[in-house]
Amino acid sequence: MSIVQEIRCSHCGAPISFKPGEILATCRYCGYTVVIETGKAFTFEHSMLLNKYDQETIEEPIKNWMRMGFLKPSDLARKSKILEKRLVYLPFWIVTAEAETVYKGIFERITPPVVKEGQIKKKYNWVVLARKAAIFPTREYDVPLEGKVPYDFRKIEGFAQTLNSEMSKEEAVELAKQQIIEHHRYLAQQDVDRIIEMKNKIKTEQAVYLHAPIWFIKYEYKGKTYQLWIDGATGTTIKGDIPSTGF
Hints:
The chain is mainly β. The chain has 2 domains: 1-43, no CATH class; 44-240, no CATH class. The chain is built from 3 helices and 12 strands; from the N terminus they run βββββααββββαβββ. The chain has helices spanning 59-67, 76-79, 169-188; strands spanning 5-8, 15-18, 24-26, 33-35, 46-48, 81-107, 114-129, 149-150, 161-162, 194-221, 224-231, 237-240. Strands 5, 6, 7, 8, 9, 10, 11 and 12 form an 8-stranded mixed β-sheet that branches. A two-stranded antiparallel ribbon has the order 1-2. A two-stranded antiparallel ribbon has the order 3-4. The longest helix has 20 residues, at 169-188.
């Protein structure tokens, strides 16, 4: 069991709880966000996405997902049992970056093999989960940034859990750069079979700290347990475990 510690909010004086490893913490009484190590105010943008569902209405997008898709068992919606519906406001860093990669590689799918050169140039709002050990399908999550508003603690539901960031802005930016480079390597490997040279240039513009409402769903079907992640802001499924149809 992890130890929960407390500091006093320098804005309203209320206790702010945090766990070892967390770098930022937000007061649930006044919404003040503080850097735990220094006790100073968090000076970057802190935004949030608003959740549209409660424990009852979230069942509609769950059942809709179960009914749709030819890969799912036809009786999934009727015979599954929802075991858990948990709303968690997860912390993310959204890193805006412009990335350019120039690569050289060998295309070996023809004889004789040929040397190819290429360029990848893209702009990103790269999503970094600000929890170091959490399991979440970040790459499948299309963050609806058009719906973000300034963080407001009063809009967090009483039954929801809010997690703090375990990463500083600098750590998040570096991780985003590493992940973008790996993504560009993957894209380059669609064009060449063996990369000889790869040069990357990444320019970051800003990093926004964002809390997003994610519904963690557990359901049972024919004696086995499966997981489903739903975006509370839009009701869309981020990722879901699909039972085998037996074919």
